[in-house]
Write a structure and sequence with these properties.
Helices cover about 30% and strands about 25% of the residues. It has 5 helices and 9 strands. The chain has helices at about 25-35, 50-60, 80-85, 100-110, 140-155; strands spanning about 5, 15-20, 70-75, 90-95, 115-120, 130-135, 160-165, 175-185, 195-205. The strands form 2 sheets. Strands 5-4-3-6-7-9-8 form a 7-stranded mixed beta sheet, sandwiched between helices. Strands 1-2 form a two-stranded antiparallel sheet. Strand 6, helix 5 and strand 7 form a beta-alpha-beta unit. The longest helix has 15 residues, at about 25-35. The relative contact order is 0.15.
Length: about 210
Amino acid sequence: MGHTLLAHSLLVPEIALHLATEITPVWQASEAWLAQNDIEPPFWAFAWPGGQLLARHILDNPALVAGRRVLDFAAGCGIAAIACARAGAASVEAAEIDPLAVAAIALNADANGVDVTATGADLVGADACWDLILCGDVCYENPMTQHILPWLRRCARTAEVWIADPGRAYLPRDGLDILLTRDIPTTMELEDRTVRRTTLYRVRPS
């Protein structure tokens, strides 16, 4: 966490997050340690477009989550989970298999004074015990997409499932209903452009 500071994304200034002040140093500082410990790159150190769109939509429409049991799946920095807690969700769980991300989510929740249960458990395949499952920017690799989409579609039989995606190549072309689309500010260090058009989808059940 030494290369992060409490900061705010442009789209969701209400939420403070431990974010990388510069992208290259935190990535380089992590690489050797990551290789030695078989840990993922520090995706948790950035507020990705999908998470920002989820958080903004929830904060603008708190009735969508108020009183509901929410899972923020592949939660990254936890921005969507924190938004749900602020919006009055009955319970909020944020799942990440990266232990550094789990630690970051706990710190970020504490910084915002909200109760979020951060877990490192691999929940893919688990029975849906939530009312709403949020997924921000999860279709960035084909193996990841093929691993999680069948499970999310099964979960959609009993829970509402949302995916917020900024145009990643592996997003499926069917089984999704568009809820809204918005341009999200980003950086050329993180993406290949300064704005990402990001869409929030509802997943249809299989």
